[in-house]
Amino acid sequence: MTEPLGSMRRFAGKVVAITGAASGIGAATATRFAAEGARLALCDLAGDRLAAFAEGLALAPADLFLKAVDVADGAAVEAFVEAAAAALGGLDVLVNNAGIGCFGHVDEITPEAWRKTMAVDLDAVFFGCRAALPHLRRSRGAIVNTASISGQLADAGLVAYNVAKAGVINLTRNLAVDHAADGIRANCICPGGVGTPMLTAHMRDAAIMAEYERLVPLGRVGTPEEMAAAITFLASADAAYITGVALTVDGGVTAQTGQPNFDRLYRERDWDKKILARKP
Prior knowledge:
The protein is an alpha/beta fold. The protein is built from ten helices and seven strands. β1, α1 (24-35) and β2 (39-44) form a beta-alpha-beta unit. It comes from Sphingomonas immobilis.
């Protein structure tokens, strides 16, 4: 039987830093950690939206640190982690969650779009972990990264995103191996489709939703709260002997074959022309 939200206090007094925390998985994760007693350091590109979200967490000012951060800037990510640890007196958990999508084939996406995707989805994880490691050594803490089933398998038309998320998975494994002796655990979750702002714009298209319902054994996309439950589990003492794991949370998609063919669905609607014409 699942414990009701707030009935567990696994993170009482612990300091948790989360990137991409203003919406989607990040916001749900922040809410779950707060309900379990954590003190939070949150960052997001949308500083105003982050502040508005944080008002609902009901945390004392001394237990909350907020910062507007563009995670594509590695120095800014490192500065956030350092400022968070200084403001809250240390760091016990780092959740690297911020991410963006990128549509197009290798010969279609621009070098700028490729680099932006790598900077946000992969490089930011590297810089965040590098800054967090000295603090996590002292606390014998944990890292949880948001990867994707798109880092385990390939999606049509999502080459940059696939490559970046694959990098997150193996970076997580290396962190687990290299820093086990420091008492640091590192794991990642690999969501399938989740009802976040990055996906909901497409969910209004009945054909795309029908594709999900056809391909996902559980018959629906996941919720941010379900991803948050997996993240907090991996960060908790309940997972004390788990490190280097890429935990798939996809409603059974990768138990069979394939995701929706975004390449075909976008091109049938001529979305490819609009998306590929955008500047990163």
